[in-house]
Amino acid sequence: MVKLTKIYTRGGDKGQTSLVDGSRLDKDNARITAYGDVDETNSIIGLARLHTKAAADDMLSRIQNDLFDLGADLATPGDDFTPGEMTLRITSEQVERLEKEIDTLNAELAPLNSFILPGGSSASAFLHQARTVCRRAERHAITASKETAINPEAIKYLNRLSDHLFVASRYLNNKGSADVLWVPGANR
């Protein structure tokens, strides 16, 4: 269990931060940027949850918890991606759960005939914002993976999560009927 008794440490005052193993990286390193984006995604989902109801809220709550696991995964160097008692790693089961939830939500939606503009309900708008930040987290995780070992399941999770957030945003827009559709060339 995590126990924080002191919030500031002064350890990052010179532009570096610690990973789980105590090694230090510059704060603008792709790994650090990726889990910063994961944290931002989580915060935006928290805003969306202020406007959701039971079933969607339960899914988003599970995702928020997963995102803390994902942040810990990204902050743990090494190439052993086996979850352990003291090592959090994203697993294929977490990715599969997202896929099942996407399929469940999507089954109730009409097929898309246009791209969707972020908006509609407040919850939907926040989930669209979370989706775009999640995509950024995925890009930074991929950049980091070119320099160091990153759990492939973490990258899959980010990819699937952005899809999940898109489908959930439609679902929370009255199952897609309140989606704001793009009208190509509407303002010419």
Describe this structure in words.
Strand 1 (16-18) and strand 2 (24-26) form a beta hairpin. It contains five helices and four strands; from the N terminus they run ββαααβααβ. Helix content is 53%, strand content 5%. With 188 residues, the chain is mainly alpha-helical. It is elongated, with a radius of gyration of 18 Å. The longest helix is centred in the C-terminal third of the chain and has 24 residues, at 122-145. Helix 1 runs antiparallel to helix 2 and helix 4 (122-145) packs antiparallel against helix 5.
Main attributes of the structure:
two-stranded antiparallel ribbon, mainly alpha, 5% strand, 5 helices, Hypothetical Protein Ta1238, Chain: A, 4 strands, 188 residues
N/C terminus separation: 57 Å
Task: Tally the helices.
Answer: 5
Structural class: mainly alpha
The fraction of residues in strands falls at 5-15%
Please describe the topology of this protein.
Layout: E1 16-18, E2 24-26, H1 30-49, H2 54-74, H3 92-106, E3 116-117, H4 122-145, H5 152-171, E4 180-181
Antiparallel strand pairs: 1-2, 3-4
Q: Could you write a compact summary of the structure shown?
A:
This protein is mainly alpha-helical. It has helices at 30-49, 54-74, 92-106, 122-145, 152-171; strands spanning 16-18, 24-26, 116-117, 180-181.
